[in-house]
Amino acid sequence: MTSSFEFHTYPARLSDAERDRVLAVLREGAAQGKLSHDTFLRRMDLALAARRAEELKLLTADLESEGPWSRRVFGTVGRISAFSQRLRRAWQAERLPKLLLPHPGAYPLRIGRDPVNGLRLSHDTVSRLHAELSMRGGRWILRDLGSTNGTTVNGRRVTTTAEVRDGDLVSFGTMSFRLASH
């Protein structure tokens, strides 16, 4: 019998990184046709429910047969693929329509679908009152007004306010622009 002062030690909880690594191996195995769809789903469930590293190791034992040379080749191909995606995004960003920064005024420039806005964007992904742009202390500030589909600056979602400047990529819903000064 154990007293209330004694405690049992259990194996350390698996980290999210360990589970993510196993899930990535399972996804790659399914993509390469090494696992059927049903086997893939069953193993994913087991990976999420696993309590010990040994359980995770068993789930991928038949899939991790790549040597160091193959890992290097696949890693290089992955990096080249990521580079080509970044290049495509950069190319598309340069082709975006320009949004001219307004002359600073006493009131912010409201942006949205509603006709009362200073900048009306007639698109389904733009909220009626989506965002506002104002000059504060010599800096342009973009503020999201609780829009449904969000406002982003250079790919980062604006939850409150963000400083913007000439050349920044801004999106209201799915409408994207490149900011430009006069």
UniProtKB/TrEMBL annotation:
The entry's keywords: Phosphoprotein
Statement: the UniProt record of this protein carries the keyword Phosphoprotein: yes
Cited Pfam families: DUF1707, FHA
Top-level taxon in the UniProt lineage: Bacteria
Species in which this protein is naturally found: Streptomyces scopuliridis RB72
Protein name as annotated: Peptide-binding protein
PROSITE patterns: FHA_DOMAIN
UniProt xrefs under SMART domains: FHA (SM00240)
